[in-house]
């Protein structure tokens, strides 16, 4: 949680990113207060049981950040259909969440310093205060806030899970919904247990067993939530990695084409290292530009080669991608040799249904282009000229 909070703090400044950063920061602080060193250190400070109040503040702030994230995601949909219900719920949350959170925190603070028995530091707050009405009232305020916030997130993410068709995003939404279901069970289950203990004083062993089992449930909640948020991001990350690898594969052919036609790219080609490490443009967008750059350069090359160069290239190999790579190599050699511009030569380009198919084809062409040599290009030009 801490690592993700640090990572997201430098990931952008839009509403969604800020909300997720706040969520992970709050949860990470809450988890740190559960560690033995931090818990004992704070509980034995001048403010007895300070770790409890800090843990509840940070967890409550994290849930508030989640609800703002939900507003940012689901608050802008048309006013009809199932999505409209999610949007209306999000807008209601936007109006009520902050006021409700502040009122809950204020009430918890007053109760913590007035009616909660803090005569001695506690190691496990819930079990140590089992059967005490002050701690029960204090925890009831927190658990109602926690349970209602989790229920709202569960409603939004379960609905999004039903509507979503993309595989990884659906898995992530399912994990996030399950984490909030555990949050609802955790909050209201603990609250009911504490109220029951007011009537029937539990033994120390039973109280600790209930607290430890629900604590394990909460830790599972954190794991599912972190994984659920990360799964959709991993899909985008994988797409970015694939785009970057495609750029690395296309670079040699793209650079030679751009040097032959410097007016085609929006800016002159940089070195391989500079192109693959630049951060002013997403890899997916640069890959899309490179695809168009290559297509534009090929279109210009068609004016500098014999009409039957493609037929000669196809006769030299059984693979269409290799034939296209040979054609490009020979066409560049012809232009560099001073071939004047003329009529448009024949060229075969398979029709791709989407960008992924186009990229896959160009990667095969670029692989064959890298293996080709000037001698093959000259032989192919000679064969095309002889046939002509």
Overall mean pLDDT score?
86
Number of strands: 0
User: What is the count of DSSP helices, taking H or I runs of 4+ residues?
Assistant: 15
* Class based on secondary structure composition and strand pairing: mainly alpha
Strand content: under 5%
Gross morphology is rod-shaped
Task: List unreliable stretches of 5+ residues.
Answer: none
Largest sheet: none
User: What is the N-to-C succession of helices and strands?
Assistant: HHHHHHHHHHHHHHH
Q: How far apart are the first and last residues' alpha carbons, in Å?
A: 68 Å
CA radius of gyration: 32 Å
Helical residues, percent: over 70%
Q: How would you concisely characterize the structure shown here?
A:
The protein has helices at 2-9, 15-32, 36-43, 50-74, 82-114, 125-128, 133-163, 167-199, 204-260, 272-277, 283-301, 309-315, 320-336, 355-371, 374-387.
Short key terms for the protein model shown above:
mainly alpha; 388 residues
Question: What this model shows, in words?
Answer:
- Helix content is 77%, strand content 0%.
- The chain is mostly helical and 388 residues long.
- It is built from 15 helices and no strands.
- Helix 4 (50-74) runs parallel beside helix 7.
List the helices and strands and how they pair.
Layout: H1 2-9, H2 15-32, H3 36-43, H4 50-74, H5 82-114, H6 125-128, H7 133-163, H8 167-199, H9 204-260, H10 272-277, H11 283-301, H12 309-315, H13 320-336, H14 355-371, H15 374-387
Helix pairs in contact: 1-2, 2-4, 4-5, 4-7, 5-7, 7-8, 8-9, 9-11, 9-14, 12-13, 12-15, 13-14, 13-15
